[in-house]
Amino acid sequence: MLVSQFFQSTHKLLFLFTLVFHAFFVNASGIERTTTMTPVMNAPSDSHLNVAVLYSARGHRGIYEELTARFNQVHPEISLSFHGLLDAQYKKSVNQWLATGEMDVLYWQAGERLYDLANKALLHPIDNVWQKEKLDTAFPQAIKKAVSHGEQTFALPFAYYAWGMVYSKPVLSQLELVPPQNWEELLNFCVAARKQDIVPIMVGSADPWLPAAWFDYINLRLNGLAFHKQLLRGLHPFTDKRVVNVFAHWKQLIDAECFNSQHEHIDWRRLFPPIFRQMAASTLVANFLDIDTPPDYFERIAFRSFPTINPEVPVYEDIPLDVFVIANRSKKIENAEKFLAFMSRLDTQTFIAEAIGQSSPHIAWDNIGSLSQQNKIILQNVSGVVQYFDRDIQQSMVEGSLTILAEFLTTSDIQSAVQQLEQLRLTKLGN
User: Fold this and answer.
1) 107 within some domain
2) Which of 35-44, 54-63, 125-134 is the most confident on average?
3) Are 273 and 14 in contact (CB under 8 A)?
4) What's the whole-model pTM score?
5) Fewest 10 Å CB contacts: which of 50, 110, 222, 427?
């Protein structure tokens, strides 16, 4: 069945999904949009706090206005100014803000992007906040590890989303199957779906970052967390036999016709309509559906962890974390720590999660959203987390490596993929 057949009469569904937003996936124009909230009257200048945030959708101004009001109820002596930029411009400005101390607190992302700033001594450790607020009881250890570097903690997590397999419940019922638990079951699942003229797994590469999820999960399930992180930091050659094995497993899925054709025309929004219309059985994607999605759609899908490949490898997950950090050159460290303490509170985290349609990493957070609840189950059972391929790999390699992974869906040429990745590693990072 051609992919183009999936999208007849699906315009209403697609409209719903275009309303879903997240900072990580916005291709921003780079136009600056700075919003400064009104400071508390008569607040002394040394109690003013500048907070940099990333805008990814309309309505964010209202969120930060409400956050300011809530913060001022607790700390009326401190005035807040939120300065918002769109994605591309924001990432260009972060290093300058940190170097000058112009911003006291900044939105950022866990993983390699966080470690890079910590290594440059641009971040103020928040161990005092973590201990004073007893955050070891508020956040899972896997989350703390993701915001720590060396012996210190550098960021306060406030939102996340989990990646996993989304399955159509009606299709599972039709095939008389349950979500695959291991690699053999996943391959059998593909065979069963094809026999019923159903696409087993929707994939897309119109968003170049999307195929990287397959590399992440197969590598994590085969080789574990430590090797995965070391590989993406450039510490192992991509010609390593363990990497070759990752592509060999991925090729098994391609050869078994597990994926749809015309993936180059499919972005992440177009993964879902065929599943809801029971023309496709599943997809590997993150939880982007809780915002503006009719509740009855959740009854039609199941969200599960990626199948096991090597049963001796613990369960690791792609769970990108959004965090706040304190600039090491800020002259208002004490007030910045008060802001982070406020952001760690359950009521604050609940407000943010509901406002932006993500999940809170706080252990006590609860939400009736279908996928949010299943996110929490995945987080509770995880042995460790990564931040997604393009957040974890050396940033000079992001664009080239994503292109290579997307091309593999078409060529399935293992030697070409690993050789290209290794040449990219040597070119960008040296031997």
Assistant:
1) yes
2) 125-134
3) yes
4) 0.85
5) 427
Listed residue (55, 117, 57) closest to 87, CA to CA? 55
Q: How far apart are CA 275 and CA 258, in angstroms?
A: 14
At 142-190, the pLDDT tens digits run 899 999 999 999 999 999 988 999 999 999 999 999 999 999 999 999 9
Q: Does residue 211 sit within a domain?
A: yes
One domain for residues 79 and 189: no
Give the domain range for residue 208. Answer: 3-20+163-318+394-429
**pLDDT value at residue 41:** 40
Handedness of CA 287, 292, 295, 297 (dihedral sign): negative
Phi-psi region for residue 319, left (φ > 0), alpha (ψ -120 to 50) or beta? beta
Q: What percent of the chain has pLDDT over 90?
A: 71
Taking the C-alpha atoms of residue 217 and residue 4, their distance in angstroms, rounded to an integer, is 28
Asked if 393 and 113 count as a contact pair (C-beta separation under 8 A), the reply is no
Mean pLDDT of 86-93: 88
Contact indicator for 294, 13 with CB cutoff of 8 Å: no
CA atoms within 13 A on the CB side of 212: 25
Residue 163's pLDDT is 93
- Report the run of H or E that residue 318 belongs to, with start and end: strand 316-318
CA–CA dist 409, 254 (Å, integer):
7
State the burial class of residue 331 (Cβ atoms within 10 Å of its Cβ: 0-12, 13-18, 19+).
exposed
Residue 27: pLDDT band (50, 70, 90) is very low
Same domain, yes or no: 76 and 176 = no
Q: Are 208 and 169 part of one and the same domain? A: yes
Is the pLDDT assigned to residue 28 strictly greater than 60?
Answer: no
275 with 299, same domain: the answer is: yes
Please indicate, yes or no, if residue 216 is contained in any of the structural domains.
yes
| CATH code assigned at 263 | 3.40.190.10
